[in-house]
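Final report, closing paragraph on structural work. Over the funding period we assembled a curated collection of sequence-structure pairs, and we close with a single example.
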Amino acid sequence: MNKAKLMQLIMLSLLISFGSVGVVCITPGMPEIAHYFQINDEWLGFTISFYLFGYAFGQLIYGALTNRFGGKVAINIGVILTVIGCIGIVYSYYCNVFWVLLFFRVIMALGAASGLKMTFTLVHKLFSNDETPRILGLLTISFAVIPGLAVYFSSELVEHFGWVAPFYFMIVYSSVIIVLNQVFPDVCLPTKSALSCRSIIKGYTAQFQSRQVIFGGLLLGLGSCFVYVFSTLSPILAMNVMGLSPNKYGAYNLLPTLGILVGSLASNYFGKVWAPIKSLKIGLLVISIGVGCLTILVAMLHNPFSIFAPMIIIYIGLSFIFGNSSTLALKNISDVSNASAVMSFINILSSVILVICLSNFDLNNILLLPMIFVILCFVGVFWFANLIKAIEK
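Its predicted structure, as stored:
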């Protein structure tokens, strides 16, 4: 691998993880946030759901921005918005107003939304159709490893400096992306008419009418639902119910990272010999096995191992879902920028709806996690079947 390709992979690795780091960096400090602002678990859940809401709709912004100004400018705009959001959250700490935190979480999310959408666009522009699933499979490693490390690092920061410290870390992370973006090739050529209302409506309408893009996005969203539901419930179950400290929670949270690491390497290897459809079937099967293990262990044991260990298996299966579902969703699509924006929007919106629905349940109920995961397994099979039908037409 030459130096240019290596730099591209480093940049894409940081970019694909950008939004995920933004959502999970707050989790070690959630109990402290609840105490600091004197709020209950329902309001605490809004720190995740508001972020995901902005993250979902932010995907649609960068399709038009990329077509008009090119990829580098779109990324710069996103990173600057993220930094503004982080500064606003730091301000909420000093003024002690919870609504200020929620508002700037949305601003932060609108900026971080550039990461996922731009990664899909750039990968499909830089690499061939045969290379794309394997490259996305490799990037899935960073998609889990970097947020996992971010949770651990954030937990240490929370332990020593309080819940606001991880947002200083996000400012540093954003700065690194801006620096790398300056030497990254801009493969998205700008079009002056791209921001006209007619062009935007025409471009997005065509993609929202594509069953291939819709069901590909929904299947990709299945993976995101697993990740974000776990990110929402695990700190509450681990720290509130099981009494773990923030740094111990961060250490346990590294276990699922092993699953993504193993799964990504396996997905990359088998991607050379398996078609994306077969890889998706294997991924759904492995996820189902992991959910079965989670259900049994949670029913028998009430300790951190029963929650975190099965996630290793589930994350192995998710590795086969992420790269292959997006590859099929964007296969033979001419307008990759808008198609990837719509796909990413549907992907994240699925998580938003589910996380918002969580506020209607007792988040301290340890059985809630396996119950949701079982339902997601059945939904995933349905999305997969419809995606195959859309491709075969």
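The domain at 3-183+193-392 is CATH 1.20.1250.20 (Growth Hormone; Chain: A;). The chain has 15 helices and no strands. We thank the funder for supporting this effort.
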